[in-house]
Write a structure and sequence with these properties.
With 562 residues, the chain is an alpha/beta fold. It contains 20 helices and 19 strands. α3 packs across α4 and α10 packs across α11. The longest helix is centred in the C-terminal third of the chain and has 30 residues. The two termini are 43 Å apart.
């Protein structure tokens, strides 16, 4: 077993989210600016965004970590890379003294799988190291939005709560502003230097932690360069003599040639995510990124020709019957990767960390298994136009009812868990207790079954270092991922609301919720492109144009963050 290979079914964590990972396979889920321009002082602000001079007053100072030097530096917004495991004797120390007071905190977080018992060795070791007695209220990650909404609507919330960015929908952002504490008095400016690992979190990620005009969240930093990639069976391509397609037309022609339905081989799985990249459409997920200022006018991605072209090209793939039948029937989700490893599809798109995850999984039974990753091409086969994703994607908050000491204990926890790769704190957070949660084999830490069951989706969600990739068992894949993101970063632009956390007015918060289902219906031939055009027209009339004016005023009053 390679390190953590068996954790592939677990949910997102800092080690498995948006290619900023070190020790677990990513599970891709789903997927805002804040100032007083939209109403009152910071304390009562319910909607809007904060950027520019107002954000500068709030944001923590940035002090890059010098504790460990990566093997591959960041370039064009990419994460850094570590290609080697660090022997225990060479691990650095990033938390020189225990910052926790010995107090108690209850934390609610999403969990994918069966939560472990609360008195397990990992939890005990972490609590002792941090100096805080933490009780975890683990909730089903699949239905977490429902539990989160109910908790935030009540008067009794845990001391701290973890919120993924894909759950920032409906009334949840407004509830966050009302329920959680301002961390500015503890972290703004040079105050963050009391927590060196948090001081090394990039400023762009901290900008995402501003909700309702206050610094309320500890963010999970992400590389803004896309982590969504089209991966292909390199071993099969080489065996059959296939050349990599370099344009949408070439891909369709190749797909028709490669599909052998009678032999149960199809060229690809659902390729919508890649299509949106190829045709230069702004990213999904955070709806603030759907807007961009073009020639003085704010344009939403659903209004662009590129959006329709991406859907039309994907529709052509389905119409040509080169897409696996399970994807046609809507079973695209996590099973796409299984169809890929089974050789039933030759190309699929997912988080690029799957390059490691599926290779680690398959090499144990098929030593010849090999994957590759397409460089994204443009609609004419030239350079693509790519758009930056948000630089922070999961948030940890502490209740307004928390005492001053509880807030400091919460920050002590987050600082410990934000330790960089190559440190003692990282090893404990990521792997647990040596001999119990993991062993070292051939120089590589390898989780035991107990570690697989217990070391996940808790502490690693509360604090995170700057984006990195570290797969020491497959150093070539580490280098391949980082270098791919370096190349793609050269073509990446930041849209008008990049890096900002926007709380939209409740009356428009769900205005565009039906578009994802409509997209899927169109590409599968159940509806037409004209249906999208009609939906856009309806969207404008129902509030889209008003929402445009609201966003434009936000931009005029506050400016962009980039």
């Amino acid at each position: 077993m390679t390190p953590n290979a068996a954790s592939a079914s677990s949910g997102p964590s800092r080690r498995s989210f948006l290619a900023s990972t070190a020790v677990a396979t990513a599970a891709v889920a789903g997927g805002m600016p804040l100032l007083a321009a939209c109403g009152g002082g910071n304390e009562g602000q319910k909607e809007g965004a904060t950027s520019g001079k107002e954000a500068a007053k709030i944001l923590p100072a940035y002090v890059a970590s010098q504790v460990v030097t990566p093997d591959i530096p960041s370039k064009n917004g990419s994460p850094v890379g570590f290609t080697k495991a660090i022997p225990a004797a060479e691990l650095k120390t990033s938390v020189s003294q225990k910052l926790g007071s010995g107090g108690k905190l209850t934390i609610m977080a999403p969990y994918w799988g069966a939560p472990p018992k609360g008195d397990n060795p990992y939890y005990s070791a972490m609590n002792k190291a941090v100096g805080v007695d933490i009780t975890w209220q683990n909730q089903d990650g699949v239905t977490y939005d429902q539990k989160l909404g109910a908790i935030l609507a009540s008067s009794d919330i845990p001391d701290a709560v973890v919120v993924p960015d894909w759950n920032l929908t409906g009334r949840i952002p407004t509830a966050i502003n009302a329920k959680f504490a301002d961390l500015g008095p503890y972290l703004s400016g040079d105050k963050v230097k009391d927590y060196p690992n948090l001081a090394a979190v990039p400023t762009d990620a901290w900008q995402r932690g501003i909700f309702g005009g206050q610094l309320r969240a500890i963010p999970m930093p992400n590389s803004y360069v896309t982590g969504m990639a089209a991966m292909y069976r390199k071993d099969i391509f080489e065996k059959r003599g296939y050349a990599l397609p370099k344009s949408p037309d070439e891909f369709l022609s190749w797909a028709k040639e490669a599909t052998q339905a009678k032999s149960k081989v199809w060229a690809c799985d659902d390729m919508k995510w890649s299509a949106l990249q190829i045709f230069g459409v702004q990213p999904g997920g955070d709806k603030a990124l759907w807007w961009n200022l073009e020639d003085g006018k704010l344009v939403n991605r659903i209004e662009t020709e590129q959006y329709l072209e991406a859907l039309e090209w994907t529709r052509k793939l389905y119409a040509a019957k080169v897409v696996h039948p399970d994807a046609v029937s809507g079973k695209a989700g996590g099973s796409a990767a299984n169809r890929f490893t089974a050789g039933q599809v030759l190309v699929y798109n997912n988080n690029i960390s799957d390059w490691w995850g599926k290779t680690a999984e398959q090499r144990t039974q098929n030593p010849d298994f090999e994957m590759g990753v397409f460089d994204i091409f443009g609609p004419d086969g030239g350079d693509p136009t790519l758009w930056a994703g948000q630089p922070g994607g999961m948030f940890s908050f502490i209740s307004k009812k928390a005492s001053k000491q509880q807030i400091k204990d919460f920050l002590a926890l987050c600082n410990y868990c934000a330790a960089p790769y190559g440190t003692k704190e990282f090893m404990l957070t990521a792997y647990g207790v040596e001999g119990t949660d993991y062993t070292v084999k051939k120089g590589l830490p390898t989780k035991t079954q107990q570690g697989i069951n217990e070391v996940s989706s808790t502490y690693d969600l509360t604090g995170n270092p700057a984006p990195y990739v570290a797969y020491p068992d497959f150093p070539d894949i580490t280098r391949g991922i980082v270098e791919w993101q370096q190349r793609m970063g050269a073509f990446t632009k930041k849209s008008s609301f990049y890096g900002l956390t926007v709380t939209e007015p409740n009356r428009w918060a769900n205005l565009a919720d039906d578009f994802e289902q409509l997209e899927d219906d169109v590409i599968r031939g159940r509806k037409k492109i004209s249906d999208v055009q009609q939906a856009v027209s309806d969207w404008k009339k129902k509030g889209g144009d008003d929402l445009r004016d609201w966003y434009k005023k936000l931009l005029d009053d506050n400016g962009s963050s980039n």
